[in-house]
Amino acid sequence: MLYLIALGSNQRHQHFGLPRDILAAALQRLDGLGLNIAETSGTIISRPVGPSQRSYANAVAIIESTKYPPAILDMFKQTEAQFGRRRGQAWSRRVLDLDIILWSEGVFTSDAPPLTIPHPHMRERSFVLGPAAEIAGDWRDPVTGWTIAQLDARNRRPKKRPEKAPKPLDHETKRH
Predict the structure, then answer these.
(1) Is 94 assigned a catalytic role?
(2) Is 21 in the active site?
(3) Is residue 173 part of a domain?
(4) Confidence tier at 95 by pLDDT (50, 70, 90)
(5) Is residue 35 part of a domain?
(6) Residue 150 falls within a domain, yes or no?
(7) Does the active-site annotation cover 85?
(8) Residue in 20, 29, 54, 85 annotated catalytic
(9) Nearest-10 crossing angle of helices 19-32, 69-82
(10) Of 34, 86, 97, 120, which has the maximum CB count within 10 A?
(11) pTM attached to this predicted model
(12) What's the number of domains the chain is made of?
């Protein structure tokens, strides 16, 4: 089975170094756990989502494994912990973040552990779609049917600003 995974880091690590180096070390660690790293994208720098102020290093990879999604997720959580990730505040800075984006077998959901494939936010995240289009542009989102390349192109289009509602006239806001 093939998995498209996302990697991110925005915090230096005392042993592994800068975020870009952390992503490379994480891929080596996953390879050492028996996951075959079939292909990796280049690393990009992106702005943070949420309260973190530090930019992220992001990349994606295609991994090959006979393990099912919950086992892969468990390996990811253990790896994140080994790199120093602490659970807690969502969207905060982190040494390592690993996410399953797509799975060659289609849609997957479970409550224990909580896991949804495709990743629920992948369609709006350019820091995932851009690198993913580089190595997996023809992969299809099983929910929309669109390829990663199509999702990336849609995501890059300038967003239309919603028209503002006209301000009420003075006489409409005065109380009688």
Answers:
(1) yes
(2) no
(3) no
(4) confident
(5) yes
(6) yes
(7) yes
(8) 85
(9) 130
(10) 97
(11) 0.83
(12) 1
What 3 state SS string does 49-86 have?
A: CCCCCCCEEEEEEEEECCCCHHHHHHHHHHHHHHCCCC
Q: Which amino acid is at 92?
A: S
Task: Read off the pLDDT band of 115 (50, 70, 90).
Answer: very high
Q: How far is residue 1's CA from residue 174's CA, in Å, rounded to a whole number?
A: 66
CATH number of the domain where residue 59 is located: 3.30.70.560
Residue 54 annotated as catalytic? no
Query: At 156, is the pLDDT very low, low, confident or very high (cuts 50, 70, 90)?
Result: confident
Question: Could you list the residue range(s) of the whole structural domain that residue 105 is in?
Answer: 2-157
pLDDT of the residue at 171: 52
Whether 108 has a pLDDT exceeding 60, the answer reads: yes
Is 166 part of any domain?
A: no
Q: What is the residue type of 39?
A: E
Query: Of residues 97, 123, 125, 141, which has the active-site annotation?
Result: 97
Nearest by Cα to 137 from 122, 123, 152: 152
